[in-house]
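Researcher: Re-running this chain for the archive, since the previous output was lost when a drive failed. Same request as before.
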Amino acid sequence: MISNDGWEHTRSDLLTVHDYENDAARLLASYGTPDAIRQSLSGIAPSGRRMLVGTTEEQTYTAAKPVILSEFGGVSIKPA
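Model: Regenerated structure tokens:
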């Protein structure tokens, strides 16, 4: 179940993120580690929107829920 795809999740089995940052290094900084994901989801995400809304308990990100960058754009990765 996804409460709202991309931002402002209330109760979801998956946490989906829409982030249109076009700098791959910035995306990696926002979502490349569990700590970066926790920081991005616990307040206002780089997209400028709150990722989790509702009660304090619902606003606490736990690693038990998968996080999916479900929309992004303008990024290309060139293999070595």
